[in-house]
Amino acid sequence: MGGMERGMRVWISHRTSYFYHQPVALGLHRLMLRPREDREHRLLAFTLDITPDCRVAWATDVYGNAVATAAFEGETPVLVVESRAELKLVGAPGDVPQLDPFAQTYPFAYSGPDWTVADPFALPVYFDPQARLAAWVGAIVMGPAVPTLALLQDINTAVQRSARYEVRAQGGTQGPLDTLDRGIASCRDFAVLFAEAVRTLGFAARLVSGYLANPGGSAPGTASTHAWVEVFLPGAGWVAFDPTHGTMGGHNLVGVAAGRTMEETTPVSGTYAGRSDALRQMLVEVEVEVTA
C-alpha cells in the first residue's frame, strides 16, 4: 500500500504595477510568470490578469520557459500585471541527486549529446582578464579528484559566506567580481557569482528566477522574487543550488524562468511611447503562502 504523498501546497500572488504621470502608449510586453513544472513541482492552477485589456499570446522559448506576450491598444495611465499560482511541491530536504558513476567525481567530461545542449551554459558571461574568479574558486578544489556534489556544495557555501545579503529592489545584477569586492549581494548577485564560479570549472549552469516557499516566512527572498542556480549533472539532470542560503535541492524553490543570464529571466519587460520621465512609480508585490 502506498503512503500519503509528502510535500507542500504553495499559493503565489505576484503583482507588478506601473503608474505614469500621463497616459502612454504601451508597446509589446514580455511576461515570464507561469511556474515551470517537473516531477517535484506540480502546477495546479494559474491565472494571469492584466489592466488595461490586451491580447495575450503564449509561447515556449528556447529554454523551455512559458512566455506570454501582451499587445495593447490606445493609451493608459497605469499598467497592472498580476499572476496567481497554486502548486504542489513533493520534494524533500536532504534528497540526494543520483549522478551517473562517471560524474560522481570531478573532473569529468559531459557526453556528446549532453554537451551539445550544455555547452552554452558552461561558458562564462563576465569578462575576467586576470582570471581572478578562476583563482578564487580554484582554491576550493581540494585535490585532483574530488566528489562532485561535495565540491559544488563547498562552492555554494563559499559564495554564501562571501557577501552580506541585502534587498535591492531596483533591477540589474552586479558582476561576480563586484560581489567579491563589495561583500554585499542580493539573491541575484549570489546566483551570478555561483554560476560564473562553477562555469570556470567546466560545469553547465543556468540562472533561475522564481520564488522561495518558506513555511517560516523570514528567510531572505521570502517576500519577493528569488534567484538561484541549476547545474546540469549527468544522471540527475538540472540540480538546484541556492547560494543565498547555501542549500542544495529544489524542495522549497518554485522556478519560473531559466536562462544563461539573469536578464533573460526578467518577469515583466516591455516598452512604452511617451516622455522618458513619464513613469511615476513602479511597485512589485509578492505574497507566498505555504501549508504542509
From TrEMBL:
<dbReference type="InterPro" id="IPR013589">
    <property type="entry name" value="Bac_transglu_N"/>
</dbReference>
<feature type="domain" description="Transglutaminase-like">
    <location>
        <begin position="179"/>
        <end position="245"/>
    </location>
</feature>
<dbReference type="InterPro" id="IPR038765">
    <property type="entry name" value="Papain-like_cys_pep_sf"/>
</dbReference>
<dbReference type="InterPro" id="IPR002931">
    <property type="entry name" value="Transglutaminase-like"/>
</dbReference>
<dbReference type="Pfam" id="PF08379">
    <property type="entry name" value="Bact_transglu_N"/>
</dbReference>
<protein>
    <submittedName>
        <fullName>Putative transglutaminase</fullName>
    </submittedName>
</protein>
<dbReference type="Pfam" id="PF01841">
    <property type="entry name" value="Transglut_core"/>
</dbReference>
